[in-house]
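Q: I'm writing up a methods section and want to include an example of the input and output format. Could you take the sequence below and give the corresponding predicted structure tokens, formatted cleanly so I can copy it straight into the document?
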Amino acid sequence: MKAKGFTLIELAVVLAIIAVLAAVLTPMVMNYVEQGRIARAQADVRTIADAVRLYQRDTGRWPVYDSSTAYTSATAAADVIGSSQGSNPANGTATWNVGGVIGTTSLESFLNNNYSSVTANGFPKVTFNGPYIGTVDSDPWGNKYLLTSGNLAGSTNHAYAISAGPNGVLDTTLSVPVGTNLNPGGDDLISMVR
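A: Here is the clean output for your methods example:
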């Protein structure tokens, strides 16, 4: 009686077919993973921009001042505020000087604390109703989300939330006048605040 089983050639053919299928399907699956990361980052920058606008709607102030005096003089705490999680993105062709412009206080702290001492005694119905956002994780590539806070403090430039995107490099121009179109540079992901 002859034993039933596969021959070495039959096993080799099956393994070759599996290898070809894996080679064809792997790039497609990896593309879906990257698209998911991009979608998450886009949703995160929109959430940050919405939280900033909600804070401003409730208080009449942008969440970039660390005191009432700073609000009165329109002096933002930093040119750029970053989320608490992640690494600083790299400088690209745009002149960000990332290490020099990011403040030490996190974006979540500004959105969840009443640093500029908003009281209900001001404009009718002005009140701090925070917190406005939970903890903001790093973007899907391990970098901080950034808010161009200096552009919210008496500036005529666009203000936006940004992720440096898959390459981790900021390629979008930091200060673009409001009358000019703001186009994301490279693979950066942005959401306009104002």
